[in-house]
Design brief:
The chain has a two-stranded antiparallel ribbon with strand order 1-2. By secondary structure, it is an all-alpha fold. The protein is built from 16 helices and 2 strands.
Length: about 400
């Protein structure tokens, strides 16, 4: 973690002059992973020869939700990109808190608001419209992006919007992160981020024991601050502001961390909650995914140095999806609910998924991107000294799984 003096590495000009297509590709992969997680029915298994291919698809997509943690790492990378670039080029410009928030709101809130209204209209059309006290409270919590702190509102209107609330709260913590990083360095700052996770888990448990009130843990920003901070470290390493040890680029270690965390997550419900093993596993799972994807991000930006002439085809495809991954996140639940109305029950669910549901999800998201998201990207890009921001928002994260609050 030693600072590097002098000029930044040769890879850095890519970020100064254009998009990081490798980061876009990771966004696209994460987005499709979480879409498949929600789209694939894990219960329907055919009795013919397709049984085993379908079971294999179900197994793979059942872990698609971990793309959420890849998005958190990428979010930290992209949000800290402007500051890291300025430091690498010797630009003394400081990030202003008010200007930062105005850019974030102009860029992200209008598409979110449009999607929220669409979901409210769909709910009113399908289930009726009853303006109760809770309905007003629920809508206000979503408008304020505080719905992730209450189990009753966390998944109420759209079960995937809780990650947006986390992102907004992590933006608030960004300036505290910068302060801690400049004062103590990254090692102590990461320890503080981990302690925030411990503190929130302890608080949740205490509130549950004392008052019987469930306080969400997986849906809380404090639980993911460590993962988000890893992305900020990755972008500083990319610009040569610090030197990371070799293991932070080892994909074999990343595979071990991601697979191990996935296995722990799968078996966690079978571990009694009142045992220390449950608490240890519960604490480690998310940071292990974060570290694994941190390594993947580091490796990707290094590999991009070899893509100067031509992008690999698979990277190009996913990078294209990554450009409008926010729109995929905002609209895919709506599209999934509606597209299944038009599939044929006589055809294989896998066929319906590949031929109808997944293409419909991508097309609707693409249309939403052009008409409901891109206009606000242009407005941000026109602002002075914000050339990077229009290419940044990587945390529109995914459609995350509906994780139950671990409050006991």
């Amino acid at each position: 973690e030693e600072p590097q003096r002098g000029r930044p590495r040769s890879a850095a000009p890519t970020a100064m002059s254009g998009r990081l297509r490798g980061i876009d590709a990771l966004r696209g992969i994460a987005a499709i992973g979480v879409v498949l997680y929600h789209a694939v029915d894990q219960k329907i298994v055919p009795t013919n020869l397709l049984r085993y291919p379908v079971k294999l698809v179900q197994l793979g997509t059942s872990f698609g939700y971990i793309g959420v943690f890849l998005f958190f790492v990428i979010s930290g990378f992209c949000i800290h990109l402007q500051r890291a670039r300025a430091q690498a080029t010797g630009d003394p410009t400081q990030i202003n808190f008010g200007a930062f928030w105005r850019r974030r709101i102009r860029r992200l809130y209008p598409p979110y608001l449009i999607a929220l209204v669409l979901y409210l209209i769909l709910n009113a059309w399908s289930a009726g419209f009853d303006v109760t006290r809770f309905f007003v409270y629920d809508v206000v919590m979503h408008l304020l992006m505080l719905h992730n702190i209450d189990p009753k509102t966390c998944y109420s209107i759209n079960g995937v919007f809780w990650t947006l609330a986390i992102e907004e709260q992590l933006y608030l913590a960004y300036f505290l992160l910068l302060f801690l990083r400049s004062r103590w360095g990254w090692t102590r700052t990461l320890l503080v981020c981990l302690l925030a996770r411990v503190a929130w888990m302890t608080f949740s448990h205490a509130v549950w024991v004392r008052y019987g009130i469930g306080v969400p843990v997986p849906e809380a920003a404090a639980s993911h601050w460590f993962t988000w901070a890893l992305g900020a470290i990755a972008v500083e390493a990319y610009f040569g502001l610090l030197k990371l040890p070799r293991w932070t680029r080892d994909l074999r270690l990343a595979t071990v961390l991601i697979v191990a965390a996935s296995a722990m997550s799968n078996y966690l419900p079978s571990i009694p909650k009142d045992t220390p093993w449950h608490d240890i596993a519960w604490f480690l799972i998310h940071p292990m995914w974060g570290l694994g994807f941190f390594i993947v991000v580091n490796r990707t930006v290094i590999a991009e140095q070899n893509w100067t002439k031509r992008l690999p085809s698979i990277i190009s495809v996913f990078a294209t999806l990554g450009v409008f991954s926010y729109s995929i996140y905002l609209t895919h639940e709506l599209t999934l609910m509606e597209s299944w109305r038009y599939v044929s029950s006589s055809l294989s669910p896998l066929f319906n998924l590949v031929v109808i549901v997944l293409p419909a999800t991508i097309i609707v998201a693409w249309v939403f991107f052009w008409f409901c998201e891109k206009p606000y990207m242009r407005k941000v890009a026109k602002k002075k000294d914000q050339q990077v921001v229009s290419a940044v928002f990587c945390d529109e994260s995914s459609t995350a799984p509906q994780l139950e609050p671990e409050s006991a």
